[in-house]
Write a structure and sequence with these properties.
Elements: E1 2-3, E2 15-21, E3 26-33, H1 36-39, E4 51-65, E5 68-82, E6 90-99, H2 132-135, H3 142-154
Antiparallel strand pairs: 1-2, 2-3, 3-4, 4-5, 5-6
Length: about 160
Amino acid sequence: MSVSPLDKAKEAIDNFEIVYDPEKKLIIEFEITVTSLNLDKVEEKAGNGDKNLTRSYVKVSYRLDGENYYFLSSNEEVAYDLIAKDKPKKNVQVRNSFVTTEFTKQNFTYSDSDVFKEKSLFNKKNKILTKYWDLSGFTATEEEKAIIASLEFKL
């Protein structure tokens, strides 16, 4: 299934590709992209602190394994030009990837105060909800273990 914004859309510029299993009624994969053609439709902002999107791509996959339907992987790439007063514009690029290699049937518990409700994680303090790396099958490198230890120290 493909979903594209209407020509007259000014804010909705994302294109969606969705792989859906109609028999099981499950989403298997989705991809969200912003094409250069759609970016050209958006009016650039010029104010101090404004961000002008230059790239946006997200791909998320799920897997059905017997009775278990779980998040398999994601890849996100976002880039924008940051406008700063009296400075040349700065291009910021963010890439995130996540891959599930093993999963547990143990339920994840959290309190309502742990749920993030803002629009952006920018300037959000780190908070470790669980020691995910101990129960996930994740194997950390020595460098990653040092980073985790430093975060625990700050909490």
